[in-house]
Amino acid sequence: MALTPAATKAAPPLPVRKPRRNSIDLMDRKRQRWGWLFVAPFGIVFLTFLVAPLAYAFWMSLHTSTLATGTTFTWFANYVKAFTDPIFLGGLGRVGQFALIMIPAQMIVALVAALVLDNLSTALSKFSRLMIFVPYAIPVVIGALMWGFLYSPRFGPATDIFGLVGLAAPDFLSQGSIFASLVNIVTWQWAGYYMIIIYAALRGIDPAIYEAARLDGANGRQIALRVKVPMISSSMVMVLIFSLIGTLQFFTEPQVLRAVAQGAIPVSYTPNMYAYSLAFSYSQFNYAAAISFALGIVVFIGSYLFLFLTRKQSGLK
Amino acid sequence: MAAIGVIAVAAAALTGCSADGAASKSKPEASCTNKIVNKEAPQVTVWAWYPAFEEVVDVFNTSHDDVQVCWTNAGQGNDEYTKFSTSIESKSGAPDVIMLESEVLSSFTIRDALVDLTEYGANDVKDKYTEGSWKDASSGDAVYAIPVDGGPMGMLYRQDLFDQYGIPVPTTWAEFATAAQALKTAGSDGVLVNFPTNGRAFNQALFAQAGSVPFTYDSTSPIDIGIAVDDQGSKDVLNYWNDLVQKGLVTTDDAFTADYNTSLVDGTYAVYLAAAWGPGYLQGLSDADTGAVWRVAPLPQWDTANPVQVNWGGSTFAVTSQATDKELAAQVAIEIFGTDEAWKIGVEKGALFPSYTPMLDSEYFVNLEYPFFGGQQINKEVFLTAAAGYGGATFSPFQNYAYDQLTEELYSMVQGEQDGSQALDDLQATLVKYAAEQGFTVAK
User: Fewer Cβ atoms within 10 A, N terminus or C terminus of chain B?
Assistant: First the structure.
C-alpha cells in the first residue's frame, strides 16, 4: 500500500493536535496494510492461477485461429459460432438431460440415507455413514476406471450374475445404456458427500422440535417429511447448486469411460469434453477458450436463475 | 509403433497434463530417464515411447563424446502429441527431438513445429531407408523426419483353432468371409476376427488396400488439400465388413482396451490382422492361452493377381523448431537408430520392424526365426514382401479429427443406423466442411 501525502505528513510524532478524522484514517490505513499482508499469500495464488488465466483465456477467445490461416482478432465471432454450433448445443442438451436425471437421483439417495442415519444411533449407523461416504474419498478418475472394469462384459460381475439365472447380461457400455451407466457412477460417487452435508444440517436441528411434533401426534414419516425436510431446505438448495454446476461441467467420468467405449461416447459428448478435444486434440485453442467461456456463461446464468427461484428456501431472501 | 492405448492412458492424460511443460526447457538440469555418460557434452532432449528404448539410448551415449541424449517417455501416441501440441502453443517446453508417427507429421508441420531436415544432411541418408517410409516422412522436397520403424501388414492367426475347426487359411477376402462363416457353423464360441470401429489407421489401411487415397496434401502449398474418403473402393471394403458384422460373424469391440487385449490372446479372436509390430504387442499381453499356436500369413487380398500391400503405423524422429541446436538435434535424429547395434536391440527386444534398409536387408533380419511363432521366419515369409510393396501414404494436417470422425461414422454403421456407403459419404461431407472452416481450399 502506498501512503497518501496526508498520511506521510501525519507520520512525524509531533505533539500537534490533529483533527480526529485524520487519526482514524491513519489507523485504518495501518490496519489495512497488515490486512493486505495477511491476504497476500492467497491473493497472489488467486491472481496468478485463477484471474490471470481467466483473463488470458478470455483474450484468446476473442481471436480466431485456423490451421491454414493465421490468428486474427474477431471480437465475439467465436461466441456467435459457439451458440450456433450444433455440437456445443447438443452437448448442452445432453448435460441438461443428465441434470434432470442425475441430480434428483443423487438428492433422493442422499436425503433418504441422511434421514435414516439421523434416526439411528447404533454403532451400525456410524459404520454405514462411513461406508456411504467412502466413494467420495476415491478420486474421480480411479472411480471411473474401476467402473469401466465393472461394466466390462469380460471382467465385470454382470455376466456371471445374469448367467446364474440364465440371462444374457446387458452391455453397459453400448450406445443405449451409457447414459444410465454414467448416472450410476456419478450417483455412487457423490451421493455420500451430499448425504454428509444433509446429515450435518439435520444434526443441527433442536431435538425439542421433534418432541413437540410427536406430542402433536406426528409419526416418524411425518416428522421426517413435514419437519426435518423443510428445516434443512437451505442445505438442500446448496447441494442442488453443487450438483447442478458439477453436472453442467460434466467431464471426468465420460472422458475416462471413453477409453473403453469410444463409439458410445464421442469426443464431444459434453461441452467440457468438446472444449478439451478442441484444444488438445485439434489445436483450436481459441475456439476452445470461447466454448469454455460460453459454458461458463450458461453455468452462471443457470445457477443464478436457480438461486433466484429458490431464494425463499435457501434463506437468501 | 502405432498408438497403443491402454485403459490407464486416459487417466494419465487427465492427471498428467499439469506435469509437463517447463521441465525440458532448462537443458542442462533437465531430468533424464537414462544415464548421461559424458557429462561435458551438450545434451539433446528426446521424447519417445519405443519399447526397450533405454538400451538404445545407452548405446548412443556410450559411443558419442560430442552429444548426449536425454530421454523422456512423455506418453504413447496421442498422450505425447497432446503435450507436444500444448508446448507448441505456449512456445516452450517441447523437446529437441520427438518421436512422431508418420501419420501426424503434417498436423505439426502446418503449425511450423518441425524443422526441415534437408539442410542438416537428411538427404545424405535417404538411400538407407525404404521408399515408402521416406515418402511418409517427407512432403514435397522437404524432409520433416527420419523414419524409424514401419508397420507392413500381415495376418496373424491361431493355427490350433484353424486346425480344430478344419478351416483353411484364407488368402483372399472372399475366402476370409467363408472362413468366418465356417468357424461359426463349426460351433466355435469365438469369432474369426474383430472389426474395431476405433481402429483409425487400421481401418484406413484396409481402405488403402482397395486403392483409397484419402488425402492429397503437400506442405509446400499448405492451404490446398484434396479430400476423397468416399471412393468406391473404400465403400466396397466397408460394406464387406458391415455385412460380416450384421451377420454376427465378426465382433466390433473397441481396440486397445483390456477386454480386447484379452480376447486377442485367449482365443476369442482366431485372427489378428496386424502390422509388423503386432507380434511384439501380442507377446506383451497377459492371460494368454497356454496352448496357443500363432502363425503369420500374408494379408488376404481382393485380387490375388494384383496384390496390394498396406501399412499400419510406423514412426519417425523429427526435430522440433524449439530445438536450441538444430544441427545437433538433427544428428541425434539421424544417428540414434542409425546403427546395426541399436537396431539389434530394436528388433530383438522392442519387436520393431525397421525402415532402415541396412538392417532390413541384412541376412540376420531376413532369416530371423521367431520363437513365438514356432520358429517361423515371419519377415522372410510375410512382412518383407509387405514392406517392399508399400509406396507411402499422405495424411491430412487434421488427421486426429479425421480419425475421430471416422470412428463416429463406423460406430453408427455397426449399430445398424447406416450402411458403409452412407458412412463414408457423411465422413466426406464432414471433413470437407471442417477443412473449409479451417481455411483450406478443398479440391475433390
Answer: C
